[in-house]
Design a protein that fits this description.
It is a single chain. With 320 residues, the protein is an alpha/beta fold. 34% of the residues lie in helices and 17% in strands. The chain has helices spanning 20-26, 44-48, 54-62, 74-77, 112-127, 159-177, 225-241, 271-283, 298-304, 307-319, and strands spanning 5-10, 31-34, 66-72, 90-92, 99-105, 134-138, 182-187, 204-208, 246-250, 288-292. Strands 1-2-3-6-7-8-9-10 form an eight-stranded parallel barrel. A two-stranded antiparallel ribbon has the order 4-5. The longest helix is centred in the middle third of the chain and has 19 residues, at 159-177. The protein is globular.
């Protein structure tokens, strides 16, 4: 049977005063995902720093853990420097109809997906190799509804379809370089609905990230309208990919959901909700489950301890 992927996704600052590698190993988790941060477009290599190095990956491997990189990589995939020579590569906004930087790209611009986006994805994959051969090069993480293109040629495609067209181009290129490479379609914000006009390449999987869910209820609890909608989208994605190609990226331990970067608010973790969520996901045949644990650094541990993480690990062990 395929290994049950169990992990957390962190940013470099989360390692301040916390030995996360040993913490994962000691508590039976097997995957560390590194994230360079959300929000405004940024250079992910600069954001990762040492955590993007061979030395760091070797330290993760030495502990028997897999290392993956989960990145909002729009700036690396479409460098700002191209704007002056190729403004048509950048998205056209809905009402002002201008070509806007620091978002995503025009998926119908001739040659862009194959010659720029896919080539830069291949460069990122070489710079940040994944021990699982799973790659996560997402689009921008800002202003839902503006991140994809509204030009006449792109308007036929939903945001989900524009995203999948981009992922497919990256998938084809990565497969040329490494036949085992796979890349994620990110179901998140406005790309939650399953695409209709575009089908995924064979080496594309779906990462389901229900960012705006309610944590007052389990994801399958029909008392939450928000969660009912997420389950509907999950079922659409399951029909398209099958459970073996669904990776859940949750927010149970994500202390960054509230407050400013220098503040330490408690994560939304609720043991009963988390366990019911994991029971539901695994009942669908899903065997890839991770959560963000951003801002669970030394300052957080001094305030709240690590009981939430330990309970998360215990729950995963029950449903493996």
């Amino acid at each position: 049977m395929k290994k049950f992927k169990k992990g957390v996704v962190l940013v470099p600052d989360d390692f301040k005063g916390v030995d996360w590698i040993n913490k994962l190993k000691t508590n039976g988790l097997n995957t560390l995902g590194m994230h360079s941060g959300g929000g405004d477009s940024h250079d992910v290599l600069a954001g990762l720093g040492w955590y993007g190095s061979d030395e760091f990956r070797q330290s993760v491997a030495a502990a028997g853990l897999d290392c993956e990189y989960e990145l909002h990589a729009s700036k690396n995939l479409l460098p700002d420097a191209l704007y002056d020579s190729h403004p048509e590569y950048f998205i056209q906004t809905l009402r002002s109809k201008i070509r806007a930087r620091n978002l995503n790209w025009c998926v119908t611009a001739p040659g862009l997906l194959e010659n720029v986006i896919a080539e830069n994805a291949a460069k990122l994959a070489k710079a940040l190799p994944s021990s699982t051969k799973n790659y996560f090069f997402w689009g921008c993480d800002i202003e839902p509804g503006r991140e994809w293109c509204h030009c006449p040629e792109c308007s036929i495609y939903s945001f989900s379809e524009q995203h999948l067209l981009s992922v497919n181009a990256m998938a084809r290129k990565l497969r040329q370089d490494d036949p085992e490479a796979q890349i994620a379609y990110l179901a998140y914000y406005t790309t939650m609905p399953a695409p209709q006009l575009v089908k995924p390449e064979e080496n594309v999987f779906c990462e389901f990230a229900p960012y705006l869910r309610s944590f007052d209820y389990a994801i399958c609890d029909r008392r939450s309208a928000a969660n009912r909608q997420y389950v509907r989208h999950l079922m659409e994605q399951l029909a398209l990919y099958g459970p073996e190609k669904i990776h859940v990226l949750e927010y149970w331990l994500d202390a960054s959901l509230w407050g400013k970067p220098d503040e330490r608010h408690k994560s939304p973790f609720d043991k009963k909700v988390c366990e019911e969520d994991i029971r539901f996901y695994t009942s669908l045949g899903i065997r890839n489950i991770t959560t963000f644990a951003v801002r669970q650094d030394e300052a957080y541990m001094k305030l709240y301890g690590d009981r939430e993480f330990l309970e998360y690990a215990e729950i995963l062990a029950k449903y493996e």
